Task: inverse folding
């Protein structure tokens, strides 16, 4: 059969969906210069393929400029066509970053961290996902039997990720029904978000080639566990030396780290609209679900919104390099670029405001009254997307981090998504998102 190799240029949009266009692979060098045509209203396509209210209508033209450094070209060696795509930036016709390009927004956030914190971000995304299969293997949580049942998927996926240039860490059977986790190593700057996009797409592609269907939906069953995205973060100076750790700091935090985390916690209730942006995300963000329900920092606590991660050495130099913290109030309904940008902007605000180091929680916050929570500086995170959007909308500081007009367009997008769900109960909503992600 005749064949003309194509490459798909994509952008990760407001719904976290990889959308774009393809063109002949041989044209990639030229397309890096002139791009491929894109339409402003495309940003308002929801995860359900409805179009939310758009200020652009049918007007305007943009360019999607592929970045060849992100090219993925994986031959699965099974007789199927290769998985071939490249990530791009959305610009105006003059080649300037478009205000609603998620990747460009993250670039700005990283620049703000450099400007105000003198640091580069070293980060990694952990992903949980599930196989859409009505046949659930019983008694397989974290078990060898559960892993063995999907060994082929794990090995195909890890091979694909390695071919794409990601640093492999682990693949495991998770607690939930048909639930798995894949972990890759940290990267500097925007590369970790690029790799998060690549990981999601290669997971779906690997599952398909194993006769399976993978979903990153935040939760499939309201009565079970959900699928989180955990973002691990640390800081490096210009020479690549760690800036995150201080042996004399609270739980090992440097001053920079303390202020950054304090900023995340202060603005967390207003940024979860971007880090956990689906209607069902808030089923998962609840107490006793091993996710996050309050704006707290925990030490080795997997129910804290931000967690100080364990160290495996007593050598101080090695401890400084290992030391990192984990943001847990995110899922794959979010674009990795917008999720990470939101966290960075909040942290940078904490640096700019010289916020003091936050306290470490050492108790079950659900046992405290609202008055006690308030006295200790803790708040319950929003319990619905509607509430989260309202907090984002009314927080002028948070809105001000983003380009002019971004907040209103994003709010319209998410409210357009909610309009597709008005008559559905929680399980029906979960079913709908399962097919979207």
Result:
């Amino acid at each position: 059969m005749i064949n003309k190799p194509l490459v798909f240029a994509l952008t990760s949009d407001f719904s976290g969906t990889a959308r774009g266009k393809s063109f002949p692979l041989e044209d990639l060098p030229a397309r890096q210069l002139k791009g491929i045509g894109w339409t402003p209203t495309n940003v308002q396509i929801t995860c359900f393929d409805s179009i939310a209210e758009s200020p652009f209508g049918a007007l305007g033209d943009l360019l999607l400029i592929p970045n060849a450094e992100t090219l993925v070209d994986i031959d699965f060696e099974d007789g199927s066509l290769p998985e071939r795509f490249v990530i791009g930036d959305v610009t105006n016709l003059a080649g300037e970053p478009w205000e609603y390009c998620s990747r460009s927004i993250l670039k700005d956030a990283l620049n703000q961290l450099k400007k105000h914190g003198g640091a580069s971000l070293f980060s990694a995304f952990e992903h949980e996902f599930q196989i859409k299969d009505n046949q659930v293997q019983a008694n397989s949580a974290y078990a060898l039997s559960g892993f063995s049942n999907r060994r082929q998927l794990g090995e195909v996926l890890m091979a694909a990720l390695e071919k794409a240039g990601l640093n492999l860490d682990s693949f495991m059977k998770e607690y939930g029904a048909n639930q798995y986790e894949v972990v890759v190593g940290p990267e500097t700057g925007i590369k970790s978000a690029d790799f998060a996009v690549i990981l999601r797409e290669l997971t779906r592609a690997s599952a398909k080639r194993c006769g399976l269907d993978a979903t990153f939906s935040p939760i499939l069953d309201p009565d079970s566990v959900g699928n989180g995205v955990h973002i691990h973060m640390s800081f490096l100076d210009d020479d690549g030396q760690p800036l995150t750790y201080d042996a004399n700091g609270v739980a090992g935090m440097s001053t920079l780290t303390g202020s950054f985390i304090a900023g995340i916690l202060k603005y967390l209730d207003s940024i979860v609209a971007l880090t956990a942006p689906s209607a069902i995300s808030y089923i998962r963000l609840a107490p006793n679900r091993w996710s996050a329900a309050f704006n707290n920092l925990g030490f080795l606590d997997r129910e804290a919104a931000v967690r100080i991660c364990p160290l495996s050495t007593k050598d101080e130099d090695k401890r400084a390099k290992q030391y990192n913290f984990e943001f847990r109030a995110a899922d794959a309904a979010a674009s990795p670029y917008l999720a990470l940008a939101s966290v960075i902007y909040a942290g940078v605000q904490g640096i700019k405001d010289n916020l003091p180091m936050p306290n470490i929680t050492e108790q079950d916050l659900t046992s405290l009254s609202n008055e006690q929570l308030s006295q200790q500086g803790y708040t319950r995170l929003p319990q619905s997307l509607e509430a989260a959007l309202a907090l984002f909308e009314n927080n002028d500081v948070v809105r001000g981090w983003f380009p002019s007009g971004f907040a209103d367009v994003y709010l319209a997008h998410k409210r357009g998504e909610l309009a597709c769900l008005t008559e559905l109960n929680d399980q029906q909503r979960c079913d709908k998102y399962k097919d979207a992600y």
User: Anything to note?
Assistant: The chain has a mean pLDDT of 96. The two ends are 32 Å apart (CA to CA). The first strand starts at residue 6 and ends at 12. The domain at 104-436 is CATH 3.30.590.10 (Creatine Kinase; Chain A, domain 2).
